[in-house]
Each structure stands twice: as structure tokens, then as C-alpha cells.
Specification:
The chain has seven helices and five strands, in the order αβαβαβααααββ. With 191 residues, the protein is an alpha/beta fold. The protein folds into two domains: 138 residues, Beta-carbonic Anhydrase, Chain A (3-Layer(aba) Sandwich), CATH 3.40.1050; 34 residues, no CATH class. A five-stranded mixed beta sheet has the order 2-1-3-4-5, with helices on both faces. The longest helix is centred in the N-terminal third of the chain and has 14 residues. The N and C termini lie far apart (55 Å). Its EC number is 4.2.1.1.
């Protein structure tokens, strides 16, 4: 049985037995916050439990490393929509210790791409189009510095409302312990 078949079989039971009713909520976050965090599998349930969040409490945006790399990319757009359309009043950037992005080196990723059939020609075309794949695929040295960088990009974004606090935290993926990096109530944008 394929993974897709397994998922679809379970989903059939899930909907027929109305298991979804336990998760009924609205599209607006009850605790009026949006979180940018990492896509790490250890955080799927741990992060919410460590913050006392349940289904419906929070909007969550995930990517590799909880890194905001472009001020007008899809991550920033999602955060702005959460604030202006979905009633989030605070933003939390939450990185984590032992993050895979701290060990990422572009050469390794590019090599793996080529092993799986991406041609050197394709990589050259992308690099020659103004996208620096080495920079784009490089991770970070310090999770705290990475979180602070993302917080600063969000807080100082020209379209982010000044009154929205942007906090930065780092979670331990083993214990759920949160360490404060930036208290958004104490810092103001420098727009």
C-alpha cells in the first residue's frame, strides 16, 4: 500500500466518522497571533503544547529555518494577511536549537540536486538570471541571530503596522523550553 493510499483510506474514515468535529473553529485566531516557525517535524505538536495553544488559537506560517529572506516574498505576505485580514495582533518568530538550516551548505544541496537530475545548465541559467543559489541555499550559524534578523525584517517592514509587537524566541525541540531573543513589547520599528 502506498503512503497516498494509506492517507486517503484514513481520511475516508476520518470524514465518515465526523472526527473533524473535534477541530471545528473559525479562520480567525482566538489568541490573535501569528507564528513564523520552522517546518521541523519535532515542532508539529510540541510548539503548540509548549505555548499552551490549541486548534484555532493561532495562525502558523512555516518554512525551513523560520527565516524571512525576502521582504516581499510569500512569507511576509502571509504575515501581513494574518495581521490585516485575519485579526492577528502580534507576530512571533520561533526558531529552534539543532535546526537543520544551521548545517546547510549550498554546495551539498546543489550536489544532491544534480544527483537527482537537475542539470548544470539549469543551475547556470538560474545563477545567470540574478538569483544567487549559493546565498539562497545557505543556512545560518546562530539560530538566535537568524531569529533576530527575521524579527527586524518584519518589525521594520514598510507595510507592517507600528503597533504590532514582533517577538523572537528559540525553542528546544527536545523539551519545549522557550528562550526569549526579542521582546516585541520593548522594541519599536525604526521606520
Amino acid at each position: 500500500m502506498s503512503l497516498l493510499t494509506e492517507i486517503l483510506d484514513f481520511n475516508k474514515t476520518f470524514t465518515e466518522e465526523k472526527m473533524y468535529e473535534a477541530y471545528t473553529t473559525t479562520k480567525f485566531p482566538d489568541k490573535k497571533l501569528v507564528i513564523l516557525t520552522c517546518m521541523d517535524t519535532r515542532l508539529v505538536e510540541l510548539l503548540h503544547k509548549a505555548m499552551n495553544m490549541k486548534n484555532g488559537d493561532v495562525k502558523v506560517v512555516k518554512n525551513a529555518g523560520a527565516i524571512l529572506t525576502h521582504p516581499f516574498g510569500s512569507i511576509m505576505r502571509s504575515l501581513l494577511i494574518a495581521v490585516y485580514e485575519l485579526k492577528a495582533d502580534e507576530v512571533y518568530v520561533i526558531g529552534h536549537h539543532d535546526c537543520g538550516m544551521s548545517a546547510i551548505e549550498s554546495e551539498q544541496v546543489l550536489g544532491k540536486m544534480q544527483e537527482r537530475g537537475i542539470s548544470e545548465e539549469t543551475l547556470n541559467i538560474i545563477n545567470n538570471s540574478g538569483i544567487d543559489l549559493d546565498e539562497w541555499l545557505t543556512g545560518f550559524d546562530s539560530v538566535e541571530e537568524s531569529v533576530e534578523h527575521s524579527v527586524n525584517m518584519i518589525r521594520n517592514h514598510p507595510l507592517m503596522a507600528n503597533e504590532v509587537p514582533v517577538h523572537g524566541l528559540v525553542i528546544d525541540p527536545g523539551t519545549g523550553k522557550l528562550d526569549l531573543v526579542v521582546n516585541g513589547y520593548e522594541t519599536k520599528p525604526v521606520k
